[in-house]
Amino acid sequence: MKEIIEEIDIVVEEEKDSNELLEIKNLSVQFDTDSGVVSAVNNLSLKIGKGETLGFVGETGAGKTTTALSIMKLIESPPGKLVSGEIFLDGENLFKIKEKDMFNIRGNKVSMIFQDPMTSLNPLMTVGDQIKEAIEIHQKLSREEIEEKTEEMLNLVGIRKERVNDYPHQFSGGMKQRVVIAMALACNPELIIADEPTTALDVTIQAQVLELMKELKDKYNTSMILITHDLGVVAETCDKVAVIYAGTIIENANVKDLYTKPLHPYTLGLFNSIPSLDEDVSRLMVIPGNPPDPSNLPKGCKFHPRCTKKLKICETEFPKNVEVSPGHFVCCHLFDEEVQEEDK
Ligand SMILES: Nc1ncnc2c1ncn2[C@@H]1O[C@H](COP(=O)(O)OP(=O)(O)O)[C@@H](O)[C@H]1O
Ligand SMILES: [Mg+2]
């Protein structure tokens, strides 16, 4: 009987996961630094479906880039150290595969776009050659096919083909980021991780680049993780949102639910700190206190020293991740029915 039950469990598991592309399970990453061990990512879990765009939101130092680099297996070690966790891409455990196979996955299945386009661009190569190289590394195509594909990619991101022999410095910031997007898309990856891709750009250019990314994503049904500290950008671009604080996801929901019914006191604080155009800036509410020191994180809920709704239990126990409505998760004692009423 036990075996039958186990078999049923396996079948259910497979069915449930058919639309899933990425799953991060209990990821913890630390860095050894002169001032001690920095806990950058703490027991972080996350799922992304095929074709889905997830906004990954949090303050500077919250662990967004470290999470992204862990998916790419690009954490430098030392000083970095994977303490625990697993990452599955299309069912494959990335932490169990060889570097040679990971090299093929990067670019081919997952591409990353960084905040500064010059992280990805070589100043000494023409943009055309760089796109060609991105195609060549991963796809076996003839010379002509590569030329063709390069033109197609430039066209896709709105760069005239006459500019194929120009160097990065001949492009503006927004245009450089378009070249990076073309390189990232060159091998039709299943997942794009964009780490604050527009933060370094002017506001109008930001909107254009985001619009372009959205169009391309819809066209190819690519999944995307859009890392940002801008909730406005998430509302425009994403299906789901994960709010990260001190290396842990503290609230996770679809965009509509999170924007109409934010629950975690930290998420509420983030919304209150968005400047609105008709508001006097001096009236802005800012979340009191500072982000925690990741080399000396508080016990219990990592947000409790800044939280206005703190309970006694928050000082000692890390909260459970509670599903308050279908797909809307919040990691906060206030929403845990098992936490004693008298405590609230
Ligand atoms: N290579 C590194 N060496 C030491 N500490 C690091 C390194 N990379 C990141 N950290 C630390 O890890 C924490 C999380 O950083 P990061 O993932 O870059 O956050 P975010 O992208 O959300 O701003 C920060 O405290 C940061 O200082
Ligand atoms: Mg970052």
Task: Provide an overview of this structure.
With 344 residues, this protein is an alpha/beta fold. 32% of the residues lie in helices and 24% in strands. It is built from ten helices and twelve strands. The strands form two sheets. Strands 6-7-8-3-9-10-12-11 form an eight-stranded mixed β-sheet, sandwiched between helices. Strand 1 (20-33) and strand 2 (36-49) form a beta hairpin. It is globular and about 70 Å long. Bound molecules: adenosine-5'-diphosphate and magnesium ion.
Strand arrangement in the largest pleated sheet: 6-7-8-3-9-10-12-11
In percent, how helical is the residue content?
25-40%
Low-confidence stretches: none
For this structure, the quaternary state is: single chain
Ligands in the model, by name, code or SMILES, are:
adenosine-5'-diphosphate, magnesium ion
Structural class based on helices, strands and sheet pairing = alpha/beta
Rg of Cα set: 22 Å
Overall shape: it is globular
Q: How large a portion of the residues is in β-strands, by DSSP E?
A: 15-25%
Overall pLDDT: 90
Distance between the termini: 44 Å
Helical stretch count?
10
Main beta-sheet annotation: 8 strands, mixed
* H-E string: HEEEHEEHEHHHEHEHEEHHEE
Total beta-strand segments:
12
Protein topology:
Elements: H1 2-16, E1 20-33, E2 36-49, E3 53-57, H2 64-71, E4 80-89, E5 92-93, H3 99-108, E6 110-113, H4 127-138, H5 143-156, H6 173-185, E7 191-195, H7 203-220, E8 223-228, H8 231-237, E9 240-245, E10 248-254, H9 255-260, H10 265-272, E11 321-325, E12 328-331
Parallel strand pairs: 3-8, 3-9, 6-7, 7-8
Antiparallel strand pairs: 1-2, 1-4, 4-5, 9-10, 10-12, 11-12
Helix pairs in contact: 4-5, 4-6, 6-7
The chain binds adenosine-5'-diphosphate and magnesium ion.
